[in-house]
Sequence to fold (462 residues):
Amino acid sequence: MNPLLDLIKETWFTRRDIVSDGFDQVLRRLAQEVPMTIHEYPSGENCWTWRIPEKWTCDEAYLAPLSPAAPSLVDYADHPLHVVSYSLPFEGVVSRQELLQHLHVHPRLPQAVPFVFKYYDRDWGLCLPQIQRDALQDDAYRVVIRTRFDPGTLKVGEVVVPGESRQTIMLVAHLCHPAMVNDDLSGVVVGLETARALRSGGLPGDTLPVQAFGPRLGSGQSGRLYYTYRLLILPETIGSVAYLSHHEDLIPHMVGGLFLEMLGSDAPHALQGSFIPASQADKCFTSTLPALDPRGYCAPYRTVINNDERQFNAPGVRVPMLSLSRVERRDSPTWPYPEYHSSLDTPEIVSEERLQASLRTTLGLLQAWERNLYPVNQFKGEIFCSGQGIWIDYRVNPEGHRRLFDIMERCDGEHSVADIACELGVSFPAVWEVVSLLHSKNLVGLSRTPQTTDPHRMTTNP
Ligand SMILES: [Zn+2]
Fold:
């Protein structure tokens, strides 16, 4: 059984433009997988500095030679990407020279139809493989583009997984890339499956190496999740702006987030930091990634790929949202991946195995987040380790010995597990292992908020 890939194969070829019947149809299908609220925002409504676009429909579009008997050269009926998303309607005979100004090809893939959108910069256009464009030799061609702009509603699907606290982690994926898979359906199905796992009894214990996390410490008191999680499935950018501008009351509770996309290709996981690199979300996720994907890498905000995390990190919102994707390094000639924004981004380039690995990575990051507590020392002075049975012999394991002391020294109620991990350059699970050992010996308590135990800060010296 391939649950993630099967859902992709079922839905990928539908035309899912930002406000369109195809988008709504796929979102309704996804809502059958997990309970989802679908928010609607009407065309023409202002959201902060933006405006909700009209619904766009393409009934028919083709490019044909003038001879009435000749078959069409490019036809929307063959592939949804043959028409520019939000193309204006157009019908007429145009010279080859004029036509070329409205034809779009992929910059890198001569055999592929490119994904081109003109949501706000209105024009008509068709997309085709470069080899096909270069073969156009006639003086004139017939163009038919029957598109409609009607009042509609932009839809945002929201799955809420309530935790003990109102503090919320946002998971976001966009669904508006017609007939493409890695970008963007792969992030949607991983997000959906993440929400389903969170709903069905919290975080499974086996996403990270079990010995790393030990008992289910750090999730809520009752064994439930401590944090609330909200997954949003939306059209890129305008969907985030529409949701945020209608939920300003929730923004103060959003303590972090993760944008998901491009999770089916073979590249290593790339974790892009937020606008606030010192945030707990940044520290926690970046120090956890190496334990989940040894090939994975972290990079600063806006240096891997740009998506909806921009709207969450922006002024007036400032939610530290990172992004998780599988993207080649920026200097690669095929960045972010070879089939990007083209008709070659099909189910064939993603695999169930890689999607499942990305699901485990996402869950592992959230598992760490639930455990990102402040260890509060119940001891004073340095711990008598051999007396407590936690001595690591420096002659046998010098690194373990040093690490134990480095971590214990920072268990002062003011450093979270993630703070300690980042300060020492040690992975989050490695720090958690020591902290949970100390906790099992009643040497530290675990707090959700910083609790200073430094006597100089607890008294008011004259
Ligand atoms: Zn894209």
Summary: The chain has three domains: 3-52+153-370, 57-150, 374-456.
